[in-house]
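input
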Amino acid sequence: MKRIILSFLAFLPFVLNAQHAYRPLVVDGKDWVSVYLRETQTFHFENGKIVGSDRTKDYGEMHEVLQGDTVIDGHTYKKVQTTTPYSSYCNFALREEDRKVFAYVFNPKQEFLLYDFNTEVGDAVMAGMQGNRSKKCTIVAKMEVLLQGEPFNFYAVEVTEGAGQSYRSYWVEGIGSPMGIQFEPAYAPIPHHPNEGEIEDPETYTGPYITTYDSDLFDYCKLGDSVLGTRDEIWAYTTGIQSAVINSPSASDTYYDLSGRRVKGTLMKGVYIRNGRKVVVK
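output
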């Protein structure tokens, strides 16, 4: 007979379903700071053919700051001003209502639900804005964690895309996620390789041909001089989920594997998530 074995992760300083004053995400002046990388690749030519290349890396900071209001369709949003060492722009704005965070994307002029911090384990909502589309987000765990010594609600989320594909992501009340404002992974930059169609006379071209591509990695979120939480702090909580004592698997319970996929039918040996807690089936 299968047994469910308690597997406490005592080193994680959180308390499940703890209560504290809600921490809003949309606050004027809040700043998401990322490490910004620009890679420059220089291709060298000889007789119209690439004979070598050099690559350099330049690091800086990217800031995404909530500053300034804009009114759209009767709603007041805070504009997200993005600044890098090379440019400054505003692609979207945020508003918050009833613990729900909405993002308005200026192109294609559409609002998306970004987070719903009212959700409990088992709830599912359509959220996100990567690629200008929402995904089904199912809460598989909810807990209170300490960031910079202060309590925040932390959510483990199963994000389902098309064709039944899913991945695990995380929401953090008042901050967003360990990836910054958005919880969805950004598309990785693709190095650009020159081809003959981009060179006027490839047979005589001597180069060099220079291409650049940029990437960023969220580092920390701050308000004024106070750091609210760091990427490393948040990721540390993703390595385990508190476990629970149960006598035997019940057909009425919902189980997920460690990738956030729902498990149907008879449970095999292994580690599962039930009601936001880790259980081991032997």
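quick obs: The mean pLDDT is 81.
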